[in-house]
């Protein structure tokens, strides 16, 4: 077989939340996809003279994140979990500000294992990954265990072009 995506990112602006969510979950129905990181950018809102946006980030993964992360099993996708962040300048469907107000806030950081990029077990004739006895080979030159995405940085980039 040919190469396959292991980590997928879906960003939705014009799509509805339901369409975005379904698209991301469809990616997770592919056994070779280890995680999907999705961002839904909601409509611009004005409070006085200030421009705001609500933004939702969601990570779908095949490994339940350890506490204190709050993850839930995804119905219909055995072994898939999701975690959601409301990280815009305002909460979704609210005029309340979020707590995503500075970089390095662990509550607004998304962490995914570096090993997911290198996960490449052999495929069966049916195209299903054969994980029996498989060990991920991460290059020794990589020292970080996780990719960390700081949602505040993403929020600020989105607000610059809003």
UniProtKB/TrEMBL annotation:
Q: What is this protein called?
A: 3567_t:CDS:1
Lineage start: Eukaryota, Fungi, Fungi incertae sedis, Mucoromycota, Glomeromycotina
């Amino acid at each position: 077989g040919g190469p396959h995506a292991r980590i997928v990112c879906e960003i939705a602006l014009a799509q509805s939340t339901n369409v975005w969510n379904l698209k991301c979950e469809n990616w997770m129905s592919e056994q070779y996809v280890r995680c999907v990181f999705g961002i839904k950018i909601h409509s611009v809102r004005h409070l006085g003279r200030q421009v705001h946006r609500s933004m939702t980030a969601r990570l779908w993964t095949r490994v339940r994140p350890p506490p204190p992360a709050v993850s839930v099993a995804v119905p219909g996708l055995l072994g898939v979990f999701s975690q959601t962040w409301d990280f815009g300048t305002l909460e979704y469907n609210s005029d309340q500000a979020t707590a995503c107000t500075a970089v390095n806030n662990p509550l607004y950081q998304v962490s995914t294992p570096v090993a997911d990029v290198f996960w490449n077990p052999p495929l069966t004739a049916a195209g299903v990954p054969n994980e029996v006895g498989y060990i991920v080979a991460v290059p020794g030159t990589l020292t970080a265990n996780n990719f960390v995405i700081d949602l505040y940085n993403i929020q600020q980039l989105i607000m610059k072009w809003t």
